[in-house]
Amino acid sequence: MSETSSTPAISVVLCTYNGEQFIEEQLRSILAQTLLPREIIISDDGSRDRTLEIARDVIQASRHDDIEWTILERKKPLGPAQNFGEAMKKAQHEIIALADQDDVWEPAKLEILSGHFSADAGVLLVHSDATIINDQGIATGSLMNTLRVTSAELGLLASGQALRALVKRNLVTGATVVLRKSLLEAALPIPDGWVHDEWMALVAGGQGAVSYEPLRLVRYRQHSGNQIGANKTDIPEARRRLGESWSGFHAKKALRDQGITALLASSPAWLSTDYSAVLEGKVGHDQWRARLPLPRA
């Protein structure tokens, strides 16, 4: 795609941690986009392997002299959410595309998703479906099917009512997300207990500004080394959650709800009365559940 004056400038924010196995394939898929980014930021969270060495080799071999590269390094890991939170602050351009270290982007990903922003100036965050792949790159299904997204939830995502679904569970996967830089002012810093993608989606959803693209635009790799991801909704994870104590479960809920409560207390001008009530209702429901008697074994 030839770049025009109406084409938004894009920054890619790619966070890494011991990602030597797949980082080269991911970087090459970004460099093969039909709409290239203007900037690629690699934020490394203290890798102890060859991740950055491989990344620098790819940069050195790249023929795209018009892409500005930045590598951020730290010795003490922040974890995925805060790594993304800090890296997004460094992005220079209007549109920010989030990237995981072990995925593969379909060639038209940036071109298709950036089109949502061009079509609607009110959109702050776009996410898409994805193809789940394993270590060997073999497709095993779709992301939304793996998450068991219902037709009702898809209807809310498609109709601009994403918040009503997102207060119940996260349906927005960071590896598929492209967002407007202006969202950062309302969404950062990411509160304790939240993952970056779900919090950014919640804040964008509170503005009726989430757009969903049903095309599978990322090959989303799930393997034993994932820190977060769709494989965290499988049977072993369900068993882990069932083994979690009642008090521990609600302590996590309470910590997350502190972030929502602080947001409500700030009375942002962009939060409508209706959506404020939705968020208040979620906090109230969590508090009500925490007061229930302990479930019997």
Radius of gyration, CA atoms, in whole angstroms: 19 Å
Determine the number of helices (DSSP H or I, runs of at least 4 residues).
12
* CATH topology group of the largest domain: Spore Coat Polysaccharide Biosynthesis Protein SpsA, Chain A
Gross geometry: globular
Name the average pLDDT.
92
**What's the SSE pattern?**
EHEHEHEEHEEHHHEHHEHHH
Q: How far do the termini sit from each other? A: 59 Å
CATH architecture of the largest domain: Alpha-Beta Complex
**Strand content bin:** 15-25%
CATH superfamily (homologous) name of the largest domain: Spore Coat Polysaccharide Biosynthesis Protein SpsA, Chain A
Main sheet attributes: strand count, strand direction, barrel closure: 9 strands, mixed
Q: Label the structural class.
A: alpha/beta
Number of self-contained structural domains: 2
Helix percent band? 40-55%
Look at the structure and give the CATH class of the largest domain.
Answer: Alpha Beta
The unreliable regions are none
Give the tally of β-strands: 9
Can you describe this structure in just a few lines?
This protein is of the alpha/beta class and 297 residues long. It has 12 helices and 9 strands.
Outline the structure in words:
There is one protein chain. This protein has helices at residues 23-31, 51-61, 80-90, 109-119, 143-146, 151-158, 162-166, 183-187, 196-205, 235-242, 246-265, 273-290, and strands at 10-16, 39-44, 68-73, 95-99, 104-105, 125-133, 139-142, 178-180, 210-221. The chain has 297 residues and is α/β, with parallel strands linked by helices. The chain has 2 domains: 10-227, Alpha-Beta Complex (Spore Coat Polysaccharide Biosynthesis Protein SpsA, Chain A); 244-290.
